[in-house]
C-alpha cells in the first residue's frame, strides 16, 4: 500500500536526534543565558553613557543556541562573525531589532554590544546613539558601513509589514471542541498554503536555533511563506505533538511545500547547500 505523501520520510540522512537534543538544550539554558545577557547589559546602563569599548560583545548564537537579548530600550552595536563593527542602532525593544537583523543579514551578524537605557524617550535614545557613533568616528575615522549615507539594509526591516502567524483555532477552543480531527486541520493548512513552516516561536522571535535557521533560509530564498507557532497553546492547542504524529517526524521545525513534507532544519540546510531548495521553491512558484 502507498504511504500518504505527508507521512513520507525525507530521502536524506536523518538528523532528528541531534535536532531534538539541541532544542532541549536551548530551552534548558534559555533563562540562564538571558540572565547573563541582562547582567552584562545592565552593567552598561549606568548614568553617563559608557564607552562602546567598555561594553562586552555577546555572540548572537553559541553551539546552536540563540542568545536571549533583553526586550528593553537600548543602544546596540552589531559586529560581523569576524569581529568587524557593522552597524550601530537604537531600539525600544532591542531583542526584536537584533532578531530582525539576524534574519535579514545573517552573514553580517555575529555578536552584539548592548547598553540599556533607563528612558526610552526620543531625545535620550538619539543622544546615546550619537555618542557611540561619534566615538566610532573618532577611533576608526568613519561611520560603520551600515550607518553610511544611503545604506538602508539595516533599517528597511523596521518599516516592513510583518506577516502574522497562522492561527488554527479561535481562543478558548480546545482539541475536544473540534468537529474534525486535528490532523484534518493540519492537512487544510498545508494544502491551502504553498509553503508552511511549523516552528517553535514566532516569525520575528523564534524560540529555537533550528527554527531560526529555517526562517533564515526561507527569507534568503525570498519566498512567500506561512508560519505556525507550535508554542501558541491559545490558538494552536495540542499542535506541538499533533504535528509530529501527522508527519511521523519527531522534531520541530517542519517545513511543507505544495502540501509535501520537506523536512527539518538540517535537511533544509543540506538542500540549500546542494541547490535542491532553490529548485523546489522555484518550481513551486510556477
Automatic annotation (TrEMBL):
SUPFAM superfamilies: Thioredoxin-like. Pfam families: Glutaredoxin. The keyword Metal-binding applies. The keyword Ubl conjugation does not apply. One of its GO terms (molecular function) is metal ion binding. GO terms for cellular component: mitochondrial matrix. InterPro entries: Glutaredoxin, GRX_PICOT-like, Monothiol_GRX-rel, Thioredoxin-like_sf. It comes from the Eukaryota. Coiled coil: none annotated. Residues 195-262 form the Glutaredoxin domain. Keywords: Iron, Iron-sulfur, Metal-binding. Belongs to the glutaredoxin family. CGFS subfamily. This is Glutaredoxin domain-containing protein.
